[in-house]
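A common beginner's mistake is to predict each chain separately and then try to dock the pieces by hand. The better habit, illustrated here, is to supply every component at once so that their relative placement is modeled jointly.
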Amino acid sequence: MDNKLMAVAKREYMERVRSRWFILGTLAVPALAVAALAIPMYMASRGASSSLRHITVIDATGTGMGERVAKALMADSSLGSAKTDSIATRVINVDAAQLPVQEHAATAEVELPKHIVGYLVLTDSTLAGKSARYAGRNASSIADMEKLESVVRQASMIVRLERQGVRSDLVNDLASSHLKVNSERLSERGRAGSGEAGLIAGIAVGLLLFMSIIIHGNNVLRGVLEEKSTRVAEVVLSSVKPETLLAGKVLGVGAVGLTQQIAWLGIGAYLMGFVAPIMMKNAGGGAGAAASSGTMSGMFASLSPEVLMVALVYFVIGFVFYATLYAAAGSMVNSEQEAQQAAVPVMILLMSTWLMVNPVMINPNSTLAVVLSWLPWSSPIIMPMRMGLTAVSPMAIAGSIVVAILGCIVAIWLSARIYRVGMLMYGKKPSLAEVAKWIRYA
Amino acid sequence: MSDFAIDIRNVVKRYEEHVAVRDLSLQVPRGSVYGLLGPNGAGKTTTIRMILDIIAPDAGTISLFGQPHTTVGVLDRVGYLPEERGLYKKMQVRRVLLFLAELKGMKPAVAGPRIDEWLERFGLVTPEKNWGEARVDELSRGMQQKVQFIATLLHDPELVILDEPFSGLDPINAQALKDAVLELKRLGKTVIFSTHVMDNAERMCDSVCIIARGEKVLDGAISDVRRQSGTRNVALALAGGAHNGVGGVLRDPTLVRKMDDNNNYFELELAPAADPQVLLRRLIEAGANVERFELVQPSLHQIFLQRVGAAGVEEGLTGHG
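With all components supplied together, the output reads:
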């Protein structure tokens, strides 16, 4: 019996691991993920928005605010080094009456294929802290507009402070201060790394499980369908119990998933070793690099052995839960298209959980979050995430695991019965009522 | 130790709309070739699946080699070739065979050499190409059928169950299969196969069971079945045909139950209590010029038609056996 279970699991594992797709996926995914992380950072640091300097500031406030904005833009290191920049920000001081004429000229200038990308208009309204206007080719760049907004906001504040008679050295000091809040999570067990790191670890575990279920759950479904449609199922079922075949399949495919994830983590960590120093160098000066390296080490510190163990337990339970349901869906149908339909209820369970990730992240102690970390189909994703975000009592974790295991047993029982009947049932796709009958029959 | 390889007692299998098998009992003697006969939809495949514990009966018991068929390890002694045959398409032939052997409890070290042996025996290993190394979907249909047959026999089963083994076989492969079945019998194995082609059954089987609409119509050794089938037929040839007095004798219901009149040649089914000698005497007394008077046993085909009839084939049943 056990040897047969192992034979089924071994076949599933070996046939999948040998396939070209597995090898490709195992190598390509971490490479793509690291690239997806590194390239935007690299692009951002490479002054993709350095063109923000190449604008005309039309200052109608008569306070020298335009000069301040230009100076701040030139001094901003996140826009790249000002020394290598051939074009400086231009400031034109005008009367309010001349404004329409100047704006017209600036518009014409931007429309020419030149280096000037846009113009910024500062008026009395800006000085009052209300609004400024910008028009340019990069107006839809969120990063550029945010940067511009913060520069203008700070300039308007400083001009107003100066007008109130605040000492100029104090004003300059205020202007150059960059405050950063370093968050740190506290729990009963003391310091547990930075809050940000815990969040990343929690999301990473949840995301990994979510992806595994989708990829390998569908593999289980397709494997069941293959056995059914090639009719090999009947020979196999004359030698092993359907429950053994189902269990072996889930075990074998699950082991493939685990193998792939370990490979992903390993390859990902290896590649990060190359990419991280480049990313930090480009992350905008020493302070940024220190902060991001702190986050990195904090992230690994927050993945304590206990958390990893619990995450692994949830991983196994969650995978078994969903994979058996996928197997049942696969055994009910005769074609790939029908299989996608049959898998919809399983997808709904999974997607509804995934949609709750954001609310739980925002408030990990809400009633919603607590309920979701007890329901067997959502706890494997939600609970490890909550553990990363907040302190969860060991009793609650143990209780939720017990509930999840019970849920698993119900899912296996139901799936095994559907599977037993479904595997030898050909013809039209069964209705829900018919499936309910199968469950009673088997 | 039981004398029966298969012993089925009062087995019932119901489905929502119909009863697939009702109160079926049959015994397959060890070392025999046994035919399970019946029209499509009679319950043959359902019966076979129940023997193999693929589906569970609603009532009744099934024993293999004197033990309940659910006993651990008993089904490892059985080889099964289903009607709907298939293999893992993307898998290497040797690996498929190894996997199926492992499911029957064989150790890979034992199964490996035996796979090579069988592949060679079936001509799947040639100097040009070793098909064992190929993927299943590279094989022709005929080759795949050979691989399936190897999978059935690889673990040297004592009982071999073949569901409609002749369907889809060309005459050459059909002959090869007949030879293989007789070879198994010579080796002391028990073979049970289902078919709706009576000719095959008549030539190969020691015993048969005819089922229709899920019920047993008759069973037993072929010679007994013919005897028991109750019908004694008389082949009668009269020179000059049946004139007046002779016609009266042939129409006497105490002697003849049914008559197939071909003018000079008659096939008569005797009435239940009738004595063929009395009939012959009466015919001669009536002045008949008898050219031929022979007691004949009906063929399996005739018995089948007679006992099952056209009504035995239920309409609208597209399921397997």
